[in-house]
Design brief:
four-stranded antiparallel sheet, dUTP diphosphatase activity, mainly beta
């Protein structure tokens, strides 16, 4: 699948790191480094603008290494970029650690997964079919 992109950053376009990778690493496009303090959140620009085909979305997800090693994660994970959005892709990061974290330009700060989706049409009914789980909620399926 081809996706139209404008790259206004000084970084190369995101690329899959391995043949089996689902996500493309997104890099910060910053004029100056940002010192992200503990419990602080920030929008990190990427300099990327996309035109996704209808029926697709881009999901913005944390990078596992940043999350595990430094407590840096995507706050609204996964963030959703709709097919009709044309603005700059920005990453909402939060520092959940007790130490500041320096974000430098070109740093890989998140990953993006392109996913197919459906739009639904509501069908109002008076009763739902029974299932094995039925109305069992949180923890109802055991450990």
């Amino acid at each position: 699948m081809q996706v139209k992109v404008i790259n206004k950053s000084k970084n190369e376009l995101p690329a899959y790191q391995t043949d089996g990778a689902a996500g493309l690493d997104l890099r910060a496009d910053l004029p100056d480094p940002i010192n992200l303090k503990p419990m602080e959140r920030i929008l990190v620009p990427t300099g990327l603008f996309l035109e996704l085909p209808l029926g697709y979305e881009a999901q913005i997800r944390p990078r596992s290494g940043l999350a595990f090693k430094h407590g840096i994660t995507v706050l609204n994970s996964p963030g959703t970029i709709d097919a009709d959005y044309r603005g700059e892709i920005k990453i909402l990061l939060v520092n959940l650690s007790d130490k500041p974290f320096l974000i430098e330009s070109s740093e890989r700060v998140a990953q993006m997964v392109i996913s197919k989706h459906e739009q639904i049409e509501w069908k109002t009914v008076g009763r739902l079919e029974d299932s094995e789980r039925s109305a069992g909620g949180f923890g109802s399926t055991g450990k």
